[in-house]
Amino acid sequence: AGVLGVALFQCLPLPANLVASLSPTSAALHQLDPDGATQLSLEPATTLRCALLGAAYLALFSAARPRPTEPLALALCLGGGALALAAVIKLGLSGTTTQWAYRARWPLENPNHLCSALALCLSVGLGVVLSPTDPRRRAAAGGAAALCVLGIVATRSRAGAVAALGAVGVTLLLAGGSGRRRLLSGGLALLIVGLGILASDPEPLKARFAEEAPTRVGVSLGSRPARWRMALQLVEDAPLVGAGLGTFDAASPALVDASEPRWTRPADAHSEPLELAAGVGLPAATAALLLLGLALLAGIRDLRRSESGRERALRAGFLGGSLGVLAHACVD
């Protein structure tokens, strides 16, 4: 609610001196606008769209709040398997061999995002495999989980593969079940991270975190630390209200040169928590992250109160998948 409230406030016309005091970056870029926009957000339409999407997600979550039942777990796992299969087929039919394009991503735009989705589906599927349920359901979940592994490898996402390993590890740690099934699942986790790293693009991993030479707008867009520092600068510039929800790509060039053309801008901060703080300010972002932490703690509490091994395994799959996605979001 705090994030949505700040986002709506960012779309309101405000006095120019108030905008300048709350967000100097927004004021500097607004000076280049011949229409003389006075909103805190650099792209009010984008911010409003993000706010409406956030409200829709919040309403859906509040209305549904489904228990982690086996039908839901099977639906997610089978859906993930179908998604992975479609992405791999699409990749095989593309005929491309360039470093970036030869990574499974369809129907999403970014292969790392697909990897996160498949990691969630994989962990949920393992929860079904580890639960004392009908063998046919376990077999279906196991087959879908194998397809998810194939999709994760095809994305060639190293951080995603490590996040999937963590998701599977948490699921195995919390699910219980027979030693044989846990051993097989553990082998699957090692297979994921091993194949995922071997299949990743040849660029050394350390280069992503190195201080590279400037490439565009005076910063290296391939360097994670450069983008993280950019996000921290935006937070420092507008700590209370941010530069606009969903507008990191518009705000970031102002840190180097406000007159830089928009096509040169970095699209994201490669860290969801930092980008959220840059977009809506520290108070709202901190409240949102604290609430997310409380939700995870509630998931752990419910897992401990599980009345059966079946319920525990399913809850472990959902919790492990959620943690894997959140871990990946911190660096991508």
Helices, strands, pairings?
Blueprint: H1 2-10, H2 16-22, H3 24-30, H4 44-64, H5 70-94, H6 111-130, H7 135-155, H8 158-175, H9 179-199, H10 205-208, H11 224-237, H12 248-251, H13 272-280, H14 282-304, H15 309-329
Helix pairs in contact: 1-4, 2-3, 5-6, 5-7, 6-7, 6-8, 6-15, 7-9, 8-9, 8-15, 11-13, 13-14, 14-15
How would you describe what is shown here?
This protein is an all-alpha fold. It contains 15 helices and no strands. The longest helix is centred in the first third of the chain and has 25 residues, at 70-94.
The number of strands is 0
Low-confidence stretches: 211-219
SSE-based structural type: mainly alpha
Instruction: Tell me, briefly, the overall form.
Output: elongated
Average pLDDT rating = 80
Task: Bin the strand percentage.
Answer: under 5%
Q: What helical percentage do the residues reach?
A: 55-70%
What does the main sheet amount to?
none
Q: Give the SSE string.
A: HHHHHHHHHHHHHHH
Gyration radius, to the nearest Å? Answer: 22 Å
Question: Terminal Cα separation, in Å?
Answer: 24 Å
Instruction: Report the total helices.
Output: 15
Annotation keywords:
332 residues, mainly alpha, 15 helices, 67% helix, 0% strand, elongated
In short, what is this structure?
The chain is an all-alpha fold and 332 residues long. It has helices at residues 2-10, 16-22, 24-30, 44-64, 70-94, 111-130, 135-155, 158-175, 179-199, 205-208, 224-237, 248-251, 272-280, 282-304, 309-329. The longest helix is centred in the N-terminal third of the chain and has 25 residues, at 70-94.
